[in-house]
Amino acid sequence: MSYSIRAGGLERHTADEVLRIEPWGPHAVRVRAASGTVDPAAPGALDSLPPSSQAELSVADDGSARLVNGRLAVEASANGRLRFLHADSGRELLADKSPYPHHVGPRVHAAGGRTEQHFEAYDGERLHGLGQHLHGRLDQKGCVIDLVQLNTTAAIPFLHSSRGYGLLWNNPATGRVELGADTTRWTADGGGRVDYWITAGDTPAQIIDAYTLATGRPPLLPEWASGFWQSKLRYRTQDELLAVAREYKERGLPLSVIVCDYFHWPNMGDWRFEENEWPDPAAMVEELTGLGVKLAVSVWPTVEPGSDTFDELRASGHLVQDAAGGLLTFPWPSRSAEEPMRPMAYYDATHPDARAALWQRLNDNYRSLGVTSFWLDACEPDLTPDVAERAVYAAGPAAEVANLYPVLHTRAVADGLRAAGDDRPLSLVRSAWAGSQKYGALLWSGDIRPTFDSLMEQIRAGLNVAMSGIPWWNTDIGGFSGGHPDDPAYRELLIRWFQYGTFTPVLRLHGNRQPHDPDFCTEATGGPNEVWSYGEEAYGILRNHLSLRERLRPYLHALSEDAHHTGAPPMRPLFFDFPDDQHAWDIDDQFMFGPDLLVAPVYQAGTRTRQVYLPSGTRWLDPATGKVLDGGTTLDADAPLERIPVFVREGAGVASVLR
Q1: Could you give the C-alpha distances from 369 to 111, 297, 387, 415, in angstroms and in order?
Q2: DSSP of 532-567, one letter per residue?
Q3: For the packed helices 488-502 and 452-466, what is the interaxial angle rounded to 10 degrees?
Q4: Catalytic residue, candidates 270, 380, 577, 588
Q5: Residue tagged active-site, from 47, 178, 223, 447
Q6: How far apart are CA 478 and CA 448, in angstroms?
Q7: CB atoms near residue 575 (< 10 Å)
Q8: C-alpha distances out from residue 226 to 100, 255, 456, 478, 546, Å
Q9: Which parts of 304-400 are beta strand (E)?
Q10: Which UniProt keywords are listed (predicted)?
Q11: Is the bond leading into 406 cis (omega within 30 degrees of zero)?
């Protein structure tokens, strides 16, 4: 069957498939295929962009077709195979897998709504993005990545290729992507459709620009968010939290945000302060505001029977259903003496009225007090895989739409804040999907280990998040699950992690320090986790880095403008700024903080020097020595415990803040 030109795109109809290819923003196309009709209302991450008026479409007599949109050209063969080329050079960027005898073809429409898309694989191709995964790799060629949300995993199905393209798998179904040596295969467990978007770019910056134009630009980072965030598991009372904020003030230490963690509520789903432990939250917020400190509060999507909202949400159909019948539930700690762990339900973030109901509670119980910063914890939502698979959302069953949950949960807060006049929404979130950036998602890497190996994993994970369109990212400095403040070995780790965190988009100290309550219950709390908790030597180093972070904040605000207008992430791999330097593509343990700062974290115990590569195309100032060094060189840089190697692009004004 030949192609036809319909509604500004190419269409091919056969007995087995409808295939549609259309321009979707500058230098990009969207491809959709289904065994029946292509559903224009199917959920995904793409904002509505009209087809480019510059696109050229043609159909040939031999049954093939061609579409050219800016830098991207698509050649569609008569048998339905697609090739994506750079329009100027004709170089192949990506192509459907070549057919061979008895092969099912590049697109598979299987029983139960499962679909597959098979692409060619290329030797030497480097693949980045796909969200946050703790496999410790920047280049993910050879990996199999599950497209499922988990604690420490944020599945964002956007792939950046060193060949000069970016590809969004525009399907919120659970599934996987296999980045094999012979094939790249995307799989969706449900939904019955193939839906992807591809763009061509001569630089990584052009690719990220096109992707965030299509899926949404991030809002500007609020000015308060660029400073230091103090957190621990957990400040149990109003008096305890205020005492910490006051001590920061008394010591003359900068503090921008202090975090009120979970179980500050009476019941899961009340979404308000418990009255005995937090007797006057309005006065607390007022005092913190006077100290120049923002309060962020934890919000979980879990709803306990007997809470303020349970009956209302259940009656309105705003709770997630179970495919086995009734409500989907999972056991969580409760203040109930008779049932300290009890099954709890989940509000349905995929239902717009449920999101409105959540925001109404947050507005009435927190925003009315002056709280506008929310920590959307456990927003995968946090379930074991066997339970997660049974979820039935308003938008559809889990196999078809599960990845929508975290992005729409973040949207609930962003929509509410924007309606209230706040055009810079920012929510700390543990999970994200494509498009989360436009709702002010500040992703963090979940409940990670307190080890040097874990710190190494964070460096690569954060850079892949950056290449997934999420500019605001951070970690629990020191790792989450453990670490004793009196342990000299842990103190070294904490120092190195804090130095790294100083040059990440958000600087946040958090963790469940020892000694801590071993039980997961409503009374649980961890050990001390303030900058003065780790001894005098560590305190002096952390204090100096707090001062450095303050001096860096104007630079970070300028990077926020870049992210808002072009999607450029503040923290990014070296190849983002130096795509013509082939060696820069090999470096996975350094990063650029904006265009002018090169950061080389220390992630091994006892290390006091480390190898650093300086990209070519410019010269580099070493602020520690005042020397200017040539690019395109590798050196052994000093890394005393007091600092990590940081270099400045020659002539950059930010050099003055590092001296």
Answers
A1: 52, 12, 36, 19
A2: GGG-HHHHHHHHHHHHHHHHHHHHHHHHHHHHHHH-
A3: 10
A4: 380
A5: 447
A6: 9
A7: 26
A8: 54, 10, 23, 19, 12
A9: 321-322, 330-333, 341-346, 373-376, 391-393, 396-397
A10: Glycosidase, Hydrolase
A11: no
Q: Which residue has the tokens 């061509």?
A: 200
For residue 197, give both structure tokens.
């978007």
| Residue in this structure with the two tokens 């900058």, named with its chain if needed | 531
Give the amino acid at 65. Answer: A
Measured in whole angstroms, the distance separating CA 73 from the mean position of its chain's CA atoms is 30
The identity of residue 534, as a single letter, is Y
* Residue 447 falls in the annotated catalytic set: yes
The answer to whether residues 333 and 343 touch, using CB atoms and an 8 Å cutoff, is no
Give the span between the Cα atoms of 163 and 91, in whole angstroms: 9
Per-residue pLDDT tens for 76-116? 999 999 999 999 999 999 999 998 787 888 999 999 999 99
Q: What is the pLDDT of residues 622-657, one digit of tens each?
A: 999 999 999 999 999 999 999 999 999 999 999 999
Q: How confident is the model at residue 517 (pLDDT cuts 50, 70, 90)?
A: confident
Q: pLDDT exceeding 70 applies to what percent of the chain?
A: 99
Burial of 24-37, coded b for 16+ CB within 10 Å and e otherwise, reads: bbbbbbbbbbbbee
Question: Rounded to an integer, what distance in angstroms lies between the CA atom of residue 237 and that of residue 234?
Answer: 9
Of residues 270, 377, 400, 588, which has the active-site annotation? 377
Please report the pLDDT score of residue 659 as a whole number: 82
Smallest Cα–Cα separation from 350: which of 384, 286, 401? 401
Please indicate whether residue 377 is annotated as part of the active site: yes
Nearest CA to 188 among 352, 344, 368, 34? 34
DSSP character at residue 66: E
